Amino acid sequence: MRTVTYGAACSLDGFIAPSDGSMDWLHFSRDVQEYMATYWATIDTMLMGRKTWEVAVGQGGAGGGATKGITTYIFSRTLDRVGHGAQLVREDAGEFVRQLKDQPGKGICVMGGGELAQSLFAAGVIDEVGLNVHPILLGSGVPLFRDAGRRISLVLAESKVIDGGCVLSTYRVVGTRESGKGNRESKARRKRVSGTRA
Predict the structure, then answer these.
(1) Could you tell me the residue ranges of all domains in the chain?
(2) pTM of the entire structure?
(3) 4-194 — its CATH code?
């Protein structure tokens, strides 16, 4: 089964973008370039929510949609089309990704956007979390994590300090067992959460 990784650069206080959307706080280094080159070779699918996609396209990029060897899916119930070689998905994100995981292929990357990650965590289809934690407190902005309706246990798989005082860490999601009323309540919460996608 394919591995789904939610990855993002974030501030120490847990934001992936400040309120004004600026990017001057991000530290780009040779360490990051080497890490990303190695990681990109392990995936062939990218997942984005509408907001992340619009930011990527607005910055003059194709949001990964035109990257050779990468299939990009944009999840939205409001967009009519996406272009740039990407594919629009309007159905339930959790079920769609669950089916993707059963298909042959490399790893799957959930790129930015806490809302899409929220619905995928709620559906239980994310396997890993990869973070590039920057030594800065943004104070407010777009949160890295949103309430998935349940506790999610993680195990640290790798962590190292890189240039600029940033810390690259990879966590693996630990499966949890639920039963009875708690299981029904959790499923109901996950259903509500999955409906937050725009």
Answers:
(1) 4-194
(2) 0.82
(3) 3.40.430.10
